[in-house]
Design a protein that fits this description.
With 616 residues, the chain is of the alpha/beta class. Strands 3, 5, 6, 7, 8, 15 and 16 form a 7-stranded mixed sheet that branches. The chain has a 7-stranded mixed sheet with strand order 17-20-19-18-21-22-23, sandwiched between helices. It is globular.
Length: 616
């Protein structure tokens, strides 16, 4: 399928189609929206030099420095190089038809018309995989063109809710781009009096067509007009939808608000608040976070766990539905906001239009997609040889995350007897980029393509931990040998299933080999220590591990996906001691130091293992 990415420039490429995951729906896009402000920022960032990127994102620089301090310069360099060499999936607002519904994706049916939101999900691609809380059914009477503005609409709706405005109150909207013009309409539908300011005359004119009561291109002029318009009292709220590195929008908002008024920031602007007007007027300052409650919460967005209606009335999904209802009722229209339309094949031209060196005015730019579509989950990158090389091991890889890219695949490449055949990753873009970078013959988003490929001898599993057991069992049943990154599985039930399958294969003399990625026992120094422990004495062994802290939001802390650092990392050292002592532990005593991070599995602990032979 076709997808638009941003590397050094915006380009439409072929990638494997996504597969439908649990809690997701597959959507065939009909339209996706190019948001001039947000996506122009992405383009400008991608074009910057490494130094330019560092200056604009000091937070990322700090993370790189910390990684270099913890893991070494080469590890940090490899990670940065890998990220910089990866294309960016563009787009975050689209609409289309449901073509497949995953397990647990309640509320959707095949052929439903839906509007989708979210960076990394509602991307510019023919088919997208979207979690249920980032998709909303489009009401009858609303076109998919209109519905493709759903993300912009939800942002505007959330800003109005954040401002807590009431019927008849007055508002100044600073910045009349896509979000600002949508805000004007949402505010009018809520019964507010609305003024707007933008340096572009045509946008002010369009705002007046959309029922904005008052507009201006000049800040001093708007201040004078607002004095008469509010009877000298000032506006009840100012909502900043502009994008500006300086502090002028915030300063203007403070000057025009009444005593006790509200300033709400939606756009990316300077927020060095001038104390005097905020203090003297006792102003309230708020930042409106994107589409609403649930944004950036993986439990809500990725796992589909809704917030209770009675306690969180307006979530991001309910804001999306609210905006679609405003479209249905005719209280908001997006048609005047569309300045250009391009088919996906010409998407690069659309991004040329919104780039800073383009002299052609644009506002809402829509990408359209062909009606005909045939799902292809595999993309061949190199022609396979007519005969398999004798004595070589053909490898298929499941997962292409940081560890696979920085450690596993480079090590496999160094082995002359290994041939890299197929790579499977969760996203088509990630699969293609990793496969091209490391020389795999094909890339895919479907695990079946790895298991059903008769040439592949060995499957390397490098996915998140909760997938290991299922993927290992499927690989074995497909007759493949397996190298599984640790851990082998997350619980005893999964382990029992693996053992039962091995026993079944053993009775049939068919058992493929399994190896788990415990690597500490292969360290040259550990092998040397092992030589000193061969007299069958009992030993007192002590090991201190400082692996550094992992951010609280990291998936390894998630009990469902990662299982915590004991299962994910301490397993390395349990295996190491078993190797050194030569037997499995007979008893375990573990004590954890409280981390103070409620909801996350503990990661600072002391463990004592005792062995039947007397070692501790």
């Amino acid at each position: 399928m076709k997808q638009l990415i941003q590397s050094r420039k915006a380009t439409t490429i072929e990638v494997p189609a996504p597969v439908c995951r649990d809690g997701h729906i597959l959507v065939k896009n009909c339209y996706s929206l190019v948001s001039r402000g947000t996506e122009k920022n992405a383009i400008q960032f991608a074009r910057k030099s490494l130094l330019g990127k560092a200056k604009s994102r000091p937070d990322l620089v700090a993370r790189v420095v910390e990684k270099a301090r913890r893991d070494g310069l080469m590890s940090a360099y490899d990670t940065v190089r890998g990220h910089l060499g990866t294309g960016l999936a563009l787009g975050y607002s689209s609409a289309g038809h449901v073509i497949q519904v995953g397990s647990g994706a309640e509320g959707f049916q095949v052929s439903d018309r839906v509007a989708c939101a979210g960076s990394g999900y509602a991307v510019h691609a023919e088919v997208i995989s979207v979690p249920i809380n980032l998709a909303a059914v489009v009401p009858a009477g609303v076109s998919l063109e209109e519905a493709s503005f759903v993300t912009i609409g939800a942002i505007a709706v959330q800003a109005v809710r954040t401002a807590e405005l009431r019927l008849g109150e007055s508002v100044l909207v600073i910045g009349l781009g896509l979000i600002g013009l949508t805000l004007v309409q949402v505010l009018k539908s809520a019964g507010c009096r609305v003024a707007g300011i933008d340096p572009v005359t045509s946008r002010c004119a369009l705002a007046r067509e959309l029922a904005c009561d008052l507009t201006s291109v000049d800040s001093r002029d708007i201040e004078r007009q607002l004095v008469d318009w509010t009877g000298g009292g000032g506006v009840d709220a100012a909502i900043i939808a502009a994008s500006s590195p300086d502090n002028q929008p915030v300063e203007l908002a403070a000057r025009v608000c009444r005593h006790g008024g509200m300033v709400v920031v939606v756009g990316a602007v300077g927020m060095n608040l001038p104390r005097r007007p905020f203090y003297e007027k006792e102003l309230t300052f708020r930042v409106s976070r994107s589409y609403g409650p649930g944004r950036y919460d993986p439990e809500y967005e990725e796992k589909g766990r809704d917030y209770p209606f009675a306690y969180v009335r307006w979530t991001e999904k309910r804001n999306m539905e609210s905006f679609l209802e405003l479209l249905r009722a005719g209280k908001v229209t997006t048609r005047p906001l569309i300045s250009h339309r391009f088919p996906i094949d010409q998407a690069a031209d659309a991004y040329g239009l919104i780039s800073e060196d383009s002299h052609q005015a644009s506002l809402g730019v829509l990408l359209s997609y062909p009606e005909d579509y045939s799902a292809k989950y595999r993309l061949d990158l190199r022609t396979p040889p007519t005969r398999k090389s004798s004595g070589r091991i053909s490898v298929g890889l499941l997962g292409a995350g940081n560890f696979a890219r920085s450690v596993l695949i480079p090590e496999l490449q160094r082995l002359p007897e290994v041939e890299l055949v197929g790579l499977c990753s969760g996203t088509g873009l990630g699969a293609r980029e990793a496969a091209e970078r490391f020389g795999f013959r094909f890339c895919t988003t479907s695990e079946d393509e790895i298991w059903n490929d008769g040439e592949i001898d060995l499957v390397v599993i490098a996915t998140r931990h909760h997938l290991h057991a299922r993927q290992l069992i499927s690989s074995l049943r497909a007759g493949k040998h397996v190298f599984c990154e640790k851990p082998l599985c997350l619980n005893l039930e999964e382990l029992s299933s693996i053992v039962a399958l091995q026993q079944e294969f053993g009775r049939q003399n068919l058992a493929p080999m399994i190896m788990v990625g415990f690597n500490r026992r292969f360290s040259p120094m550990i092998c040397e220590i092992k030589e000193h422990l061969r007299d069958n004495s009992s030993w007192m062994l002590q090991l201190r591990v400082n692996a550094g802290s992992i951010p609280a939001e990291h998936w390894i802390h998630d009990p469902d996906q990662g299982g915590g650092r004991i299962i994910g990392e301490v397993c390395h050292f349990v295996d190491l001691f078993s190797y050194l002592v030569g037997e499995s532990a007979g008893s375990v005593l573990a004590v954890a130091a409280s981390s103070g991070r409620s909801g996350h599995l503990e990661e600072n602990l002391s463990v004592r293992l005792t062995y039947p032979g007397g070692s501790v």
